[in-house]
Design goal:
The complex is a heterodimer of chains A (428) and B (440). With 428 residues, chain A is of the alpha+beta class. Chain A contains 16 helices and 11 strands. Helices cover 43% and strands 17% of the residues of chain A. The relative contact order of chain A is 0.16. The longest helix of chain B is centred in the N-terminal third of the chain and has 19 residues. The chains are: A alpha+beta (428), B alpha+beta (440). At the A-B interface, helix 2, strand 5, helix 4, helix 10 and strand 9 of A face strand 5, helix 3 and helix 11 of B.
Chain lengths: 428, 440
């Protein structure tokens, strides 16, 4: 028997009269449907003096619409076991959830109502603002978050949209009122800015008809092109430390700015990052820092390429006495891969892993929806899952070597450390 | 309408027991060209003696470090070549290993698990190097005030039962454990008669049983498992713990002794938890997916909508012995913890006084029904559920779950609330942040 998904995805895509894009993939593994509605409405579009606005909208969006009160929405979703997630990133705001197939029409209607007609009642905005301030306080107490935030500020500068904290500050949130939320919504939530992905046990024609019904007669401004300024050129090595007394462990964040998602070198960078800090427990970094030296529970690197020049980031959590040793080990691995590139065996192992992992990446409705959303955002095509193996197969050892040589230079790294100072005189 | 808890393209679970006692469960699922192999051992931190805490979890780490037939540096790469992932986890009743990859990797995965069961190397230098990795894992957890509070509350709520110590172990024990402690634990518990092999995915059940027999059939049976855990004496008065440390946010936990999975109270308690904090389902492995549907849940409406907390959550998990029902609250910035605690206890007292509405029971049942469907969305999750319940609760639990949830009545929920939320049996923990600086 050939498994259904072994043949690849077969999504339908339609542009509705309202100019919204809808993509549907039928699956039948569970009697459930995943919805993923993504708008070009991330923190990139906030006014400079309203940092945190998009995050606050994500908290307040589903707290009442012109047609449904917050209580009615809560009851309708709760009784169907649906937990609606609204997540704001730098570029997008995404409403996503999974519902039983039998609840699909009603849940889609509620989600689209929330996206189209939020009312942002003052009382709800005040409560959600207090929650957002608490979340900022929690971040301030979290060495991993502090180290990462500081790293992005070092890499991009505090004025760049990738260098700012997306949650804003208690002060900036204090300046935001419901007028700001409503104005941002009117500007950025429009059918032309929407990509709606539906994956699950629902016929494509029925799902498209339901989407058409919910998005009918909705108009709004054109989202315009997405423009991200380039980061400042790397200015030599930068190191910054945040003292967090009372914490048990230090967090390291170390990185470089690299390329955008649509750069033709993307696949070479992806494979290079896999060798450096992903393969197995965490690539060469985990082999050295965790496996050989026993210094850390986690040491890995990530490369999440997006619209603008994106970061390659190394992370490790270590005993405060081992910070310098861990940093030296990261430098050594980065230097070696940058100077010599990966071995032929590493390249073939990484290639086999990435190609072989595609079915696993596309196993659940939720993960298929995320994959199709990314494909749509970057114009990769409805057959991207089937083209991906050949894109990875086309990358040569020299391509990866050049990628590593371009970016992996410890003398250009930004380094951010958050944690307790080691006690003076304590053995290291 | 009846909803199936396993995907449409699956067959009934095939069961087999080898002569050495190994249980084998196979679920065919032909929706994706994938297979998930889990090997479960009936040993967890609840089986550890004082002074040896953390040994089960450390042993789990050691079992990724090479075997007689798989050199240490080749453990990594076998499953990866098939696009696979692997992992392991340890909790109070069980230790589990998972490999999920393209279905053509089945033989390699069975080989790895058989090697892990019988032929671990436990080189002394690897044991030493892993000691500091685990201490780093412990310290990383301590960076999170909520996790720190959870450890302290659990240790306060139990007097005698070994569930009281954290699965990762106490720091001094981690410093003192030896290679022989680790190897002795491994040899005692990693035997076929204490294990369940679960395979779910695009495979033929008969072939899986044949291959598993080839890989595991020669491994000798171990001594019969004698599991005598110290019973927990009944709690006769409220207990409290207060942590004051540098930090930014306050946290409160309220815990009560929970029914074990075999206790008739378990399902009424599961429904009660859904009424109070929203239904999570019962999959420990997929329980990290974010907030449950809880906007109409009692503690959410009274504390989050009431402007005292930014987050509420409840945790009831199926366990072999009675563990804890844990309610957790994150205080909104500036809210006194006493006020938050007072409102939470008031909400619990209200359930004890007047029970719950029929509409709340209906909503909880519907939520649980949906969550049970959502948490079987991958071969990895399906195999996890089969192995978890086989190891912790026995084979009858999983197939009966939906029926037993549907059978729960409002009267039963009121009854468990009255008995199990008695103030004399609760333990309350606070994490109160203090400003940075000396004087801690």
């Amino acid at each position: 028997m050939t498994p259904l998904l072994a043949r690849g995805l077969s999504p339908c895509r339609a542009t509705l009269d309202s100019r919204a894009t809808v993509i549907v993939q039928e699956t039948s593994s569970t009697p459930a449907v995943a919805l993923n509605a993504s708008f070009l409405a991330g923190s990139l579009y906030e006014p400079d003096d309203r940092a945190g606005l998009a995050c606050l909208i994500a908290r307040a969006l589903d707290r009442g619409t012109e047609r449904r009160s917050a209580g009615v929405i809560a009851e309708a979703l709760d009784e169907r076991g649906v937990s609606l997630r609204i997540r704001s990133t730098r570029h997008t705001m995404t409403l996503s959830c999974t519902c039983l197939a039998e609840d699909f029409d009603e849940v889609l209607a509620i989600v689209m109502d929330i996206a189209r007609r939020p009312t942002f009642p003052d009382e709800e905005v005040a409560k959600r603002r207090a929650e957002a301030v608490t979340a900022i306080r929690q971040d301030e107490d979290n060495p991993a978050v502090r180290a990462a935030d500081q790293l992005f500020e070092l890499l991009y500068g505090p004025a760049h949209p990738y260098g700012r904290r997306t949650k804003g500050t208690a002060e900036s949130l204090g300046r935001i009122d419901r007028t700001d939320l409503a104005a941002f919504h009117a500007r950025r939530f429009s059918p032309g800015s929407l990509s709606l992905v539906i994956v699950g046990d629902v016929e494509a024609s029925r799902a498209l008809a339901a989407a058409e019904r919910e998005l009918h007669e909705w108009t709004g401004p054109d989202p315009g092109p997405v423009v991200v300024a380039p980061p400042p050129p790397p200015a030599g090595r930068r190191v910054a430390r945040i003292a967090m007394p009372g914490k048990a462990q230090s967090d390291l964040a170390y990185g470089f700015t690299t390329i955008s998602r649509l750069d033709p070198r993307y696949y070479a960078y992806w494979m290079m990052n896999n060798v450096l800090g992903q393969f197995g427990l965490g690539g060469r970094l985990a082999d050295s820092i965790r496996e050989r030296q026993g210094m850390a529970y986690y040491a890995y690197s990530t490369f999440d390429a997006t619209v603008g020049d994106s970061a390659l980031t190394v992370r490790a959590g270590v005993d405060p006495h081992n910070v310098e040793r861990a940093l030296a080990s990261i430098d050594a691995e980065v230097l070696a891969l940058g100077a010599d590139g990966p071995t032929g065996v590493e390249v073939e192992e990484t290639r086999a892993f990435l190609i072989g992992s595609i079915p696993r990446m596309l196993e659940t409705n939720d993960s298929i929806a995320g994959f199709l959303q990314t494909s749509e955002r970057f114009g990769l095509g409805l057959d991207y899952d089937r083209r991906l193996p050949s894109l990875l197969s086309g990358v040569t050892l020299d391509d990866i070597r050049s990628a590593a040589a371009d970016v992996l230079h410890p003398d250009r790294a930004a380094v951010s450390i958050a944690g307790p100072d080691p006690e003076p005189g304590a053995p290291s | 309408m009846t909803l199936s808890l396993v995907p449409a393209a699956s067959t009934p679970v095939r069961r087999a027991t080898l002569d050495n006692g190994l249980q084998i469960l196979v679920q065919e699922i032909h929706t994706a060209p994938l297979v998930s192999v889990w090997c479960w051992y009936g040993v967890g931190s609840g089986d550890e003696a004082p002074g040896q805490t953390g040994v089960s979890h450390w042993v789990e780490h050691m079992n990724f470090k090479g075997t007689t037939h798989i050199p240490r540096d080749q453990m990594k790469g076998i499953v990866e070549r098939f696009g696979g992932m692997w992992n392991g986890y340890t909790w109070i009743d069980q230790t589990a290993y998972v490999d999920t990859a393209g279905s053509t990797a089945l033989e390699q995965m069975l080989f790895i698990e058989a090697e892990r069961m019988a032929n671990g190397l436990y080189e002394p230098e690897d044991c030493e190097s892993e000691r500091t990795v685990i201490i780093s894992e412990l310290q990383g957890g301590e960076n999170d005030p909520d996790q720190l509070l959870d450890t302290e509350v659990t240790a306060t709520a139990f007097r005698a039962h070994p569930y009281r110590h954290p699965t990762i172990g106490w720091l001094d024990d981690l410093k003192g454990l030896t290679r022989d402690d680790l190897y002795g634990h491994y040899r005692r518990f990693y035997v076929p008669n204490n294990a369940t092999l679960v395979v779910a995915g695009d495979v033929a059940a008969d072939e899986v049983v044949r291959s598993a027999t080839r890989y595991f059939g020669q491994i000798p049976e171990g001594a019969p498992m004698s599991r005598r855990r110290v019973p927990e004496p009944a709690q006769v008065g409220e207990r409290r713990v207060l942590i004051e440390r540098e930090g930014a946010t306050g946290y409160v936990k309220v815990v009560f002794p929970a029914p074990s999975s075999a206790d008739p109270d378990f399902f009424p308690m599961l429904v009660l938890d859904a009424v109070l904090t929203g239904a999570k389902g019962v999959n420990l492995w997929s329980s990290f997916r974010g907030a449950p549907p809880q906007r109409k849940a009692r503690l959410y409406t009274s504390l989050v909508e009431g402007g005292l907390a930014s987050m509420v959550s409840g945790a009831l998990l199926p366990t072999r012995d009675p563990f804890l029902y844990t309610l957790s609250f994150t205080a909104l910035d500036g809210v006194p913890l006493g006020e938050l605690e007072g409102r939470a206890l008031e909400a619990l007292e209200s359930v004890r006084r007047t029970g719950v509405e029929e509409t709340e029971i209906v909503r909880a049942r519907r939520q649980l029904r949906a969550r049970l469907v959502f948490e079987t969305d991958s071969v990895t999750n399906i195999a996890h559920q089969l192995g978890y319940f086989e190891t912790v609760a026995g084979p009858e639990f999983l197939p009966a779950m939906q029926r037993r949830i549907d059978a729960v009545t409002a009267a039963e929920v009121w009854d468990v609330a009255r008995r199990r939320f008695a103030p004399s049996t609760r333990t309350i923990g606070w994490f109160r942040p203090v400003p940075e600086g000396p004087g801690r």
